[in-house]
Amino acid sequence: MNPYVPVAFAILIAIVFSLVFVGLSYYFGPRRPTKTKTAVYECGMPPVGTTRQRFSVKFYMVAVLFLLFDLEAVFLYPWATQYSTLLDSFPGTFVLGEMAVFLGVLFIGWFYCLKRGAFQWD
Amino acid sequence: MFDPGELNFIGPEIAVFVFALLVLVHDVMFKQRNATISMGVSLMGLATAAVLNLLNMQAVDVPREAFAGAMAVDGFGFFLNFIVLLAAAGALLISHDFLRRIDVDVPEFNPLVLFVAFGMMLMGSANDLILLFISLEVMSLGVYVLCGINRGELASAEAALKYFVMGAFASGFLLMGIAFVYGGIGSTRISAVAQWFAIEGNGIAGNPLIGVGVALLLVGFGFKVAAAPFHMWTPDVYQGAPTPVTAFMATGVKAAAFAALSRVLLVALLGQNLEFHTALWLIAAGTILMGNIGALVQDDLKRMLAYSSIGHAGYLLMALVGAPAAGLADNPRLGGILFYLLAYTVMTVGAFAVLSFFTRDGVEDTRISRLGGLADRHPAVALALSICLLSLAGVPPTMGFVGKFYLFAAAIEGGAIGIAVVGAIGGAIGIYYYLRPIVVMYMHPEPADRVELAMNPAALGVLGVATVAVLVFGLVPGSLIEVAQDSLLSLAAWGGV
Amino acid sequence: MNPALLSLVPGFPLLGVIVIALLNRKASRVVAGSIATAMVALSAVLSFWTLFTLVGAHGELESLHTVLYRWIDVGGVDVNIAFMADPLTAVMMCVVTGVGSLIHLYSIGYMDDPADANSTWRFFTYLNLFVFSMLLLIMGDNFLVMFVGWEGVGLCSYLLIGFWYSNTEFAKAGKKAFVTNRVGDFSFLLGLFLLFWSLGEHATLQFSELKEVLGAHPELVGGHGGTLVTAICLLLFGGATGKSAQIPLFVWLPDAMAGPTPVSALIHAATMVTSGIYMICRLNFLFAMAPVAMGAVATIGALTAFLAATIAVSQNDIKKVLAYSTVSQLGYMFLGVGVGAFTAGFFHVITHAFFKALLFLGAGAVIHAMHHEQDMRHMGGLLGKMKITGWTMIIAWLAIIGFPGFSGFFSKDEILWLTFAADPAQVALFGPTVPLPKFLWGIGFITAILTAFYMSRLVFMTFFGEFRGGRHGHGDDHGDDGNAHAHEPHEVSPVMWGPLVVLAVLSVFGGLLNLPHWLHAGNLTGWLHHFLEPVFEDAHMRFDAAPEHLELRIMALTIGVVFFTIYAAWQMLMKNPEIKHQIEHFIPDFAIAGSINKWWVDELYEFAIIKPLVLGSRQVLWAIVDALVIDGAVNGTARLLSGASRAYGQRVQVGKVQVYALALASGAALLIFAFAVGS
Q1: Considering chain B, what is the average pLDDT of its residues?
Q2: Is C323 found in the same domain as C355?
C-alpha cells in the first residue's frame, strides 16, 4: 500500500471531524441576534465607521522596503557565520566578491528608491 | 569545485543585467532624464549580450553543465537568447516614441525590459527547476509592472492586475509541480530527472506523485504560453497593455516560456511522453481551435493578434505532440519549434510596430476599421503590414510559412496526424481573419475622422527590418533552419533516452 | 565565370519587375521601358558571357551550375532552386535575352498610344516578368524550377494577350490561351508524376541525376521502348503541344495575336512557344528511349506544319498569317526533334527566333504606321513609304522561305534532309520498319512550297503594288474618326527600326552557326552541332549515311520548287489575277472553304468540348453541387464558426478574472485527476 494513504486518511478524518462538529453546533446552537450582539467587538468601545477602510499606499511601500532590506540581513548572516568554512573551498576574493556584488546591486536598488522618493513620507 | 570561468556562460545575462542597472541609475539620477541616452545604453546592453552570446556559441561545441548543474550550456539556450534579445530590442525601439505619445515618462521602462530579458534568458538555459522558477518569476514580475506602466489608463491597470492575479495563481501550480516532482524523484535537475526515468522500471506509470507533479507543471507552463484552458487572461491583458509591452509579451515571454516547457518535455520527460500524450494532444487541439475561432470576430486588431497568439502557441504545442519517445534524433524537424519562435517574434514585432502608430490624443485606437485607406496614404507601411500578416497566416514565401511547414512536418513525422489535421483546420480559419485587415487596408475608404499616423523612424526601422527578414528567411530558410535544428538537437545531449 | 553569377541572369529581369511595379504610374513609358530594356540587356550580357565561357572551355567544362538555395527536402528528394547552364541552355539564354532585349527596345517606340499611357508600366512589368519566367524555364536544373517557369510564361502570356482587357474579344483570347495551355500543363504534370512515381527510390527531379539514373537503371521506366517510358514521353509531349501550339492544342496561338505586336514577336514567335521543343531537347535521353513517342512527335509536327500552312495561304490579317506561319514553323521544329535531329530542330529554333521576331516587329511597324490596320487587302506598295521596314521584312521573307544563303535555308534544309535520312526504327510510331521518315519528309516538302507561297503573298500584298489604304481600319479601336487615314504611312522611329536592322543582320548570317558539311567551311562546319554534342550524344540517334549527292539533289529540288513558287505567286497575285481564279477552279471548294475557315477546328472544339462542358457545369455542377452542396457547406461552416466565435467572446471571455481562474482551476483539476488516475 502506498505509504501516503494513512496520511491522506488522517487529513480526511481531520476535515470530516471539524466539519461535523462545526455543523453540529451550528445546527443545535440557539441564535437570537440583536444589533448589539452582531456589532464588531472593539474592546468594549462602540465601533466608529466601517472596518473596510482604505489606507495609504505608503504603508505598503514601507512594508515592501522593510522586507527587502530585512532579507538582505537574512542573507548576510549565514554568509558571515560560514565565511571561514567557505574559504576552504573558494578563493577569498571570490567569497568576498560575491557578497560585494550582492550588496552592490542592493545599493543600486536603495539608490533608486531614494531618488524616486520612496523614503519620503510626504 | 567552482570555476570562475563558468561566469562566461552567463556573460550575456550579466551584460543585460549590468546595463539594466546602468540605465536605472542614469534614469533616476537627473531631474529630467534623457530618453535617448537611456534607450541607447539599453540597446547597447542588448547588443553586448548578443555579441557575448555569439562568442559563447562559437566556443561551446559540446553541451555542458555549469554552476554545479543548475545551468545547461547548449545551443538551445543560445538560440533562445537571440530570440529574447531581438524581442527586447524590438519592443524598446517601438516604445521609444510610443511612450512619449501616451504621456508615460517613467524611468523604469527600459530597465524593466532589460530585467525581464535577463529572466527570459536564464529561463532558456535553466537546467534546474528551481532556477527555472526563479527566472520565470524575475520575468513575470517585470512583465506585470510593464503591463500597468500606463497607470492612468484603466485598461492598462486592469491588464496588469488581471495578469498578476492569474499569474500568481499559475505560479503556485508550477511551484507545486516542482515540489511533487522532487518528492517523486529526489532531484530538481532536469537532466537528473531524465536520467532517473532512463533507469529500467522507473516511470510516471505507478508513480502518482510524479504524475500529479507533471500535471501541475503543465498547468504552470500552459498559463505562461497561453494554452487552453489556461489562456483566458491573454486577450484582456494583451489588449490592455501598452502596444510595445504587448509586443514583448507576445514574443519574448512566449518564446522563453516555450523554451522552458520544451526543455522539460524534451529532456526530462522525453521517454515518458506516451504517458501524457493524450493530455498534450487535447491541450494543443483546444489551444489551436480556441485561438483561431476566438480571433474570427474581433474588431480590434490588437485583440485579434492576442487570440492569434494563442493559436500560434497551439501550433507549437502541436509539434511537441510529435516528439519521439525514442530520442530527439528521430525527429530533427522539431527544430521547427525554435525556428518558428524566431519567425513568430520577427513577424509579430513587425505587426505591432504598425499598431503602435495608431494613437489618438495619447490613447490607443487599434480597431481594424482604423486601417481603412492605409494603402493609399502609406503604401509601404500597408505592404509591410500585409507581409507580416500573411506570414502570420503562413502564406509562402514567408518565414511564417517555412516555420509552420516544419511544425506540421514535425507533428506528422512524429505520428501525430490527428493533431496536424486540427492544425490545418486552425490554419484555414486563420487565413480568413488575417486577410481581413489587409482587405480593409486596400479596399476600404479612410475613416471619416482619420488621424495622422504617428510614424517614427525607430518603429519604422523595426518594421522594415522585420519585413525584409520575413521575406528573406522565407525565401532562403536553409541555413537558419539548420542552426535551429542543431540547436534543438543539442538537447539530446542531456541523457535520458 | 563564377557560376554564382548565373543567378543574376533571371535576377535582373526580376529586379526590373520589382522596380517598375514599385514605381507603377510614376514611371512613364520611356522610363519603364528603359529600365525593362536595361535589365534584359544586362541579362543578355551575362548570357553571352556564359556562352563564351562554355565555348572557350572547348568541351572541358560540361556545364555551369549554381544552387541559389536549398528549398525544402521532401520525402528524401532534395529540391533546390538551382540553375544550370550547359551548351543547350547557354544558346537558348542568349536567344531569349538577346532577342528579348531588342524587342523590349522596340516596345518603347511601339507603345506610344496616348490611350495606354497609364498602363505601359504594366506592360513592361509583364514583359520583364515573362523574361524572368522564361529564364527559369530554360535555366532550371530540375523539373520544379522548370515547371515554375513553365507556368510563369503561361501566366505572362495570358496577361499580355489580354493587355487591352477592356476589349472583350481580346480578354477572351487571353482566356482561351490560358485554358488551352492549362490542358497541356495538366498532361505535362501527369507525365512528371508518372516519371517521378516510376523511379521509386531513385526518384529525382534533377535533370543530370535523372540522366544518370536512367542510364544505370533503364528498367525503371520499362527499358528502351517500354510502355511506361512511352506513356511518360507522350504525356510530356502533350504539355509541349499546349505551350508550342501543335495539334490538337494550336488553336490559341492565332487568337493570341490580340496582344500588342511586340508581345507576339517575343512570346508567341521567338521564345515561349519554343519551350516545348526546348523541353524535348533537354530530355532527349528520355525521349530517345521511346521510339513510338518520337514518331508521334515527328508526325504531329509534320501534320501541324502542313495544316497551319494551308490555313495561312488564305488569311488576310497580316498577324494571322504570321501566327499560322509560326505554328507551321514550330511543326518543323518538332519534326526535327521527333526524327532525332535534335541539333537541327534546335538550330531552327534559333534562326526562327531571328526571322520570325523580325517579321512580327516589321508587321508591327506596318500596323503602327497604318494606325492599327491589320488587313493586308488595305495595304500594298508600302516599300516606297517604309524603306527600312520593307527591306528588313524582305530579308526575313527570304530567310523563312529558305532562300539559299539565308539563315532559314540552312536550318530548314537540315531538318528536311535529316528527316529523309532518319532511321525508321527510331521514329517507330507504326512499327520500326514502316518508312515513316520518308513520308514525313514528303509532308515537309509540300509545306515548304506552301510556306514560300503564303509568305510571298504576304510580302507582295503588303509592300508591292498599289497602296490600297485610305479606308478607316476596322481593327482600329482607338476611337478617332476618319482622320486617321489622312496620315500617310511613313517610316517608324529609329528606336523601332533599329531592332529590325539588327534582327535582319542576324536573319541573314544566322546560318553561320551551323553550316552544312558540303560547304567545307572548316571550323564553321556544324559548329552548333559540335557545341551541343555533349548534350545530345547519349541519345544515340542514327541517320542513313546516304551519299552526299543525294542530299544535294534533295536540296536542289527544294530550292527549285521554292523559286518556282515565288515566281508563280508573283504572277498570280501581282501580274495576272486571272490565273488565280483559274487555279482556284482546280482546287475543290471544300479545301478553299476549309483554309479560310481554319478547317473548322475552333467550331469543332466549341461543339464537342466547350458546349457540353459549359452546359454540364451550369446545369449540374453549378446548380446542384456548387450552389447547394459547396456553398451550403462553406456558408454554413463560416456561419457556424463566427457564431461560435461570437458566443465564446460574449459568454465565456467576459473579462472577469473569476471566470478565468475558474477555467484555469478546472483545467488543472482535470489534468491532475487524469494523471493521478492514469499513473
Answers
A1: 91
A2: yes
C575 and C673 belong to one structural domain: no
Q: What is the pLDDT of residue C71?
A: 66
Indicate the residue among C578, C596, C614 that finishes a domain.
C596
CA-based nearest residue to C124, from C26, C35, C41: C35
ipTM: 0.86
Quote the cell numbers at residue C177.
490561351
Question: What pLDDT does residue B147 have?
Answer: 94
Give first-to-last CA distance, chain B, whole Å. 28
Question: Does C410 lie in the same domain as C297?
Answer: yes
Determine the structural domain holding residue C340 and report its residue range.
Answer: 165-475+486-596
Write down the pLDDT at residue C474.
44
CA distance linking residue B115 with residue C626, whole number of Å: 58
Kindly state whether B215 is in contact with chain C, defined as any CB-CB distance less than 8 angstroms: yes
Would you state the cell numbers that stand for residue A31, as one nine-digit string?
A: 441564535
What single DSSP character describes residue B465?
H
CA distances in angstroms from B17 to B13, B28, B91, B95, listed in the order given? 6, 17, 17, 20
Which chain B residue is nearest to residue A94, measuring alpha carbons? Answer: B4
pLDDT digits (tens, 9 = 90+) for A48-72: 777 787 888 888 888 988 888 888 8
C72 CB near a chain B CB, below 8 Å? yes
Cβ neighbours of B208 in A, within 8 Å? 2
B68 at A interface, C-beta within 8 A: no
Q: Extract the residue ranges of chain A whose pLDDT is less than 50.
A: none
**Which residues make Cβ contacts (< 8 Å) with residue C27, sequence separation at least 6?**
C20, C35, C121, C124
Q: Are C421 and C547 part of one and the same domain?
A: yes
User: C532 and C616, same structural domain?
Assistant: no
How far from C259 is each of B251, C24, C323, C537, CA to CA, in Å?
50, 21, 12, 40
Q: Length of chain C in residues, anyone? A: 679
From the CA of B58, how many Å to the nearest CA of chain C? 24
Domain count, chain C: 3
Give the residue ranges of chain C where pLDDT is below 50: 472-486
Same domain? For C20 and C71 the reply is yes
CA distance C229 to C226: 6
Asked if C465 and C409 sit in the same domain, the reply is yes
Residues whose CB is less than 8 angstroms from the CB of residue B203 and which lie 6 or more positions away in sequence, other chains included: B197, B271, B272, B275
- Select, from the ranges B161-165, B228-232, C203-207, the one with the highest average predicted confidence (pLDDT): B161-165
Identify the bridge partners of residue B300 per DSSP, sorted by sequence position: B367
- Among the partner-chain residues B276, B290, B298, the one whose CB lies closest to the CB of C675 is B276
C157 in a domain, yes or no?
Answer: no
Q: Which amino acid is at C563?
A: F
d(CA C140, CA C67): 10
Interface test with B, best of A68, A98, A110, A112 (most B CBs within 10 A): A112
| B162, B171, B293, best to mutate vs chain C, most C CBs in 10 Å | B293
Using an 8 Å Cβ cutoff, are C197 and C213 in contact?
no
Q: Are C141 and C208 in contact (CB under 8 A)?
A: yes
Among C553, C573, C596, the domain boundary falls at: C596
| pLDDT at res. C484 | 44
Residue C535 and residue C644 in one domain = no
Whether C531 is covered by a domain: the verdict is: yes
Q: Do A112 and B24 touch (CB under 8 A)?
A: yes
Q: Are B410 and B334 in contact (CB under 8 A)?
A: yes
What average pLDDT does this structure show over B205-223? 90
Measured between beta carbons, which residues in chain A are less than 8 angstroms from residue B107? 116
Q: Is residue C296 part of a domain?
A: yes
On the CB side of B169, CA atoms within 13 Å amount to 21
In degrees and rounded to multiples of 5, residue B190 shows phi and psi of -65, -45
Instruction: Answer whether B229 touches C (CB < 8 Å).
Output: yes
Examine residue C481 and state whether it is found in any structural domain, yes or no: no
Evaluate the omega torsion of the peptide bond into residue C437 and state whether it is cis, within 30 degrees of 0. no
Cell of C167: 476589349
Residue B389: predicted pLDDT: 94
